[in-house]
């Protein structure tokens, strides 16, 4: 249900296990089940990235999360969910740099190159850092200013990129979205009928 990455500092003084989990609820309690037919478009996906086996001295910070069509994070074709202050309109960051778990959510989408495919697959990658709790807040970008306020890289013990399991998406939208579209169309049709009858 998740992918683990072991990371350590240069002298091996600690080892942390990073884990990425995908959930289907806003409380991050029910793991996301992806059917063989794929998730519907715009399905909300809740992501938790957690570091374990660490002392309380460190927090987890996500610098960037993005998607590619292969499990390789170095692929040239990618879609950024967020990089510092810049984020996709459908992406919401709920917790980052404040504990040993980072939380965010986004809506399922498809790459343009998969438009003629019934289902498409993408992988989520997050570039992570471990930061000392006393300095984590200063490592976060200052989104109210023109420039990003960052401390020196030496304040960050180590970093790693963690990759999700495959996320398969179908061409269809979620049932709620489809119902909303149908409801809006019915209301418009009803209004047009009333307007025609009144004339």
TrEMBL record:
| InterPro entries registered for this protein in UniProt | ZP-C, ZP-C_dom, ZP_dom
Location of the ZP domain: 1-150
The source's superkingdom equals Eukaryota
**Assigned keywords, A-Z:** Disulfide bond, Signal
Gene3D superfamilies named in the record: Zona pellucida, ZP-C domain (2.60.40.4100)
The yes or no answer to whether the keyword Signal is present is yes
Q: What is the protein name for this chain?
A: ZP domain-containing protein
**Lineage, top ranks:** Eukaryota, Metazoa, Chordata, Craniata, Vertebrata
């Amino acid at each position: 249900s998740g992918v683990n990455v072991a990371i350590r500092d240069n002298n091996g003084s600690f080892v942390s296990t990073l884990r990425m989990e995908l959930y289907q609820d806003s409380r991050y309690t029910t793991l996301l089940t992806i059917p063989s037919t794929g998730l519907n478009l715009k399905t909300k996906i809740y992501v938790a990235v957690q570091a374990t086996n660490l002392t309380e001295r460190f927090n987890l910070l996500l610098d960037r999360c993005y998607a590619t069509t292969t499990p390789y994070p170095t692929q040239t074709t990618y879609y950024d969910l967020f990089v510092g202050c810049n984020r996709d309109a459908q992406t919401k960051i709920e917790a980052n740099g404040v504990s040993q778990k980072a939380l965010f959510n986004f809506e399922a989408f498809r790459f343009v190159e998969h438009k003629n495919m019934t289902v498409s697959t993408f992988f989520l990658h997050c570039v992570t850092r471990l930061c000392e709790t006393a300095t984590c807040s200063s490592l976060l970008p200052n989104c109210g200013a023109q420039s990003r306020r960052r401390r020196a890289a030496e304040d960050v013990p180590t970093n790693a990129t963690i990759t999700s399991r495959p996320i398969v998406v179908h061409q269809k939208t979620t049932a709620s979205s489809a119902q909303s579209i149908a409801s809006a169309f019915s209301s418009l049709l009803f209004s047009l009928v009333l307007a025609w009858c009144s004339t």
